[in-house]
Design goal:
This protein is an alpha/beta fold and 143 residues long. It has one domain: Alpha-Beta Complex (Protein-Tyrosine Phosphatase, Chain A). The protein is built from six helices and five strands. It has a five-stranded mixed β-sheet with strand order 1-2-5-3-4, with helices on both faces. It starts with a strand and ends in an 11-residue tail after the last helix.
């Protein structure tokens, strides 16, 4: 499973598989938030099964099913309640991780923790140190 770190103890990813919960528990995750409706795609782990597996691994499980067509302020608020930023390590997921990240971003804007300009223009990625100053003599030299 590939997780993206959004900061403040929140990571996001695409759809979880049954075996991912043990990995999340070992990483210190205490709550999983599923933003994907049941049956959205064939073969996805059902909410009831995911909740049971999460509990077996000592993880609280919350389900906030939303699609881009059903996105609402209630869903944004519920997501914010599930991701308090109080030190609780939370992992949110959906089909790709994008929907969970959008819910987080919208909640951050609505609550004033993230201003709109920062949301529109996030920090620029730093160049990799190797590409900033190659260590191989002659690399990129002109004759």
């Amino acid at each position: 499973m590939k997780r993206a770190d959004l900061g403040s103890g929140l990571t996001v990813s695409g759809q979880l598989e049954a075996g991912d919960f043990a990995e999340l528990a070992q990483a210190g995750v205490r709550r999983v938030v599923n933003t994907r409706p049941d049956g959205e795609k064939p073969g996805q782990l059902a909410t009831a099964d995911a909740a049971r597996i999460a509990a077996e691994n000592g993880i609280e499980y919350r389900h906030i099913p939303v699609t881009m067509a059903t996105l609402s302020m209630d869903a944004v608020q519920a997501f914010g309640d599930a991701v308090p930023g109080d030190g609780t390590v939370v992992h949110a997921h959906c089909g790709s991780g994008l929907r969970a990240a959008i819910l987080w971003g919208l909640n951050q804007i609505v609550t004033g923790r993230l201003d709109r300009d920062t949301a529109r223009h996030p920090r620029k990625p730093e160049p990799h140190p190797w590409t900033a100053s190659p260590s191989l003599r002659g690399y990129g030299d002109t004759q």
